[in-house]
Design a protein that fits this description.
By secondary structure, the chain is of the alpha+beta class. It is 44% helix and 13% strand. The strands form three sheets. Strands 1-2-3-5-4 form a five-stranded antiparallel beta sheet. A three-stranded antiparallel beta sheet has the order 6-8-9. Strands 7-10 form a two-stranded antiparallel sheet. α5 runs antiparallel to α8, α8 runs antiparallel to α9 and α9 packs parallel to α13. It is globular, with a radius of gyration of 21 Å.
């Protein structure tokens, strides 16, 4: 009898957490036709919801293992979107994400310790999975520069820290050291070269956090890669920046560094042929030109002087994060194949080495802009 009750409850719970059922708790224009999962990012689960009148929406289940306070997370997103909406009076519906309210009020639906949100789906758009050439790099740099510029008059203290210490590179290095020392999954021996590489570059961890004079606190996106930009299908113009979960106070250089990390090589984050993982100076120049076209007048001299350094710091940070996750049993990042986190690590470290080799050339290019 108890078994049947538990089984029935389990079936009921699964039905209540079915994406179509969850979507029914949001204020939509018509009845739900379908809800299908889509591949979107490393962290949250995303579903494309279609309604009977042709409406399209994006439903997301917030990963509370990563974002432990979804209420404060959603407060950030609401505040940022309200601010951006006020800046985009024309074409607001295509240039700013719009949250869908729930039937109970607010923009977050909670059920059995799961938290969900929904956006209008901006039709006639696409994303680039990777930078293909200088035009994409320049456009992406300008898009994130414009994003920072539009948020420049939003006081950073009004936003919550959604992931405490997200770009605290010294703390990331400490977690890496602990993972190496613990070696819970007995993987340290197979990645000894990567561990040695990371240990030898420990001073990089201090370059942004302890920069002198202190860098100004600004609002940064903190996940500045081209796949987080929506492009217009007809004009190919960058419309808006998406995936706002990590938008919080920090330094503008976090975004510059992440753009350099993700957009200057033209290769996948887990590229197996490491000989192909090199900084392309044409992509770097275009990226810097795009970003500075929007932010040059706002940056302090101390920030501009660290533009190239930021790429090395964030690439190093991401490399030790992938390596830490691999040593800890792959608990943070999703994987498409075994040891993908180790391959990601190797690609990041290959890119960092290339950045080190071309540092003087990149500094010269920034000075020429």
């Amino acid at each position: 009898m108890w078994f049947l009750l538990e089984l029935n409850y389990s079936v009921l719970l699964r039905s209540q957490l079915d994406p179509s059922h969850v979507a029914s708790h949001f204020l939509l224009d018509s009845r739900i036709h379908s809800a299908e999962q889509v591949a979107a990012g490393h962290i949250n689960d995303s579903y494309r919801v279609l309604t009977e009148d042709g409406g399209q929406y994006l439903l997301q289940r917030i990963n509370t293992a990563i974002f432990r306070d979804p209420v404060r997370l959603m407060e950030n997103i609401e505040r940022v979107l309200d601010h951006l909406s006020a800046k985009c009076e024309s074409e607001r519906e295509r240039r700013v994400l719009r949250l869908i309210p729930t039937a109970a009020g607010g923009f977050c639906y909670e059920r059995e310790d799961t938290f969900w949100r929904m956006y209008w789906f901006i039709d006639g758009t696409y994303i680039h999975r990777a930078v293909e050439g200088p035009h994409e790099a320049r456009t992406a740099g300008a898009a994130f520069g414009r994003f920072q510029a539009m948020l420049a008059d939003l006081p950073p203290h009004l936003l919550n820290e959604t992931i405490p210490g997200f770009h605290d590179t010294p703390s990331r290095f400490q977690l890496f050291e602990e993972a190496v020392a613990g070696d819970a999954f007995r993987r340290a021996s197979e990645c000894a070269p990567e561990i040695s590489f990371a240990m030898s570059r420990q001073p990089l961890a201090e370059w942004l956090v302890n920069a002198g004079p202190p860098l100004p606190v600004r609002i940064a996106h903190n996940d500045a890669k081209i796949s987080n930009i929506l492009f217009d299908s007809e004009t190919h113009e960058a419309l808006c920046v998406v995936d706002l979960d990590t938008v919080m106070p920090g330094t503008s250089l976090y975004d510059v560094g992440d753009m350099m990390r993700s957009m200057t090589t033209g290769r996948d984050e887990d590229e197996r042929d490491l000989s192909l993982v090199n900084v392309r100076l044409d992509l770097f120049k275009a990226l810097a030109e795009g970003y500075l076209s929007q932010m040059a007048d706002r940056l302090l001299t101390s920030e501009r002087e660290l533009l190239v350094s930021s790429g090395m710091v964030i690439t190093y940070e991401q490399g030790i994060r992938f390596l830490t996750d691999y040593l800890n049993g792959d608990v943070y990042y999703r994987q498409a194949f075994p040891a993908q986190n180790l391959q990601r690590t190797r690609a990041q470290f290959a890119l960092l080495k290339s950045m080190e080799d071309h540092c003087a050339e990149m500094e010269s290019l920034v000075a020429s802009i």
